[in-house]
Amino acid sequence: MVTELIKIDEVKNILSSFPDIIGRNTSSVKKCNEAGQTLLDTIEGEGMNEAIDQAAADYLKKVSVTIKNMDERRKPITQIFDRVRSFFTSQEKEIDPKDSTTIPGKLVAKRNEYAKFKYEEEQKRKKEAEQRARIETEKANYQQTIENSLLSYFN
Asked: I need a surface site. Which of 32, 73, 84, 123 has the fewest CB within 10 A?
């Protein structure tokens, strides 16, 4: 199943490019921030004008392109991570006791049924014991009443 979902050679090839991608993206962020800081410093020193506003607009377009390029460089790696995560979570889902369609989930349901059965049996036993106790109490009261009546009659 692992080889169907994730090809090990593909993972190795993609991950071997990881250091290069990290380096290129880090360099892109650094250069982008340096260029942006230069523009900010110019604005703070000279104030805004048409030329600086156009330079800022051009800079922000380049930022969008840089973000897109960084995204495209990292996508193969993050997709592998997503596939690996999905693989593991799908395996965990196959034995999730909270899911009633899995074997552990079915066992939980059986245990719950049995616990309910035991509870109902215990309630039934208690009810029968209480009824027997009431009958015994009633018998004792009846016998006491008869004894008192007979004592009273003979007295």
From this structure: 123
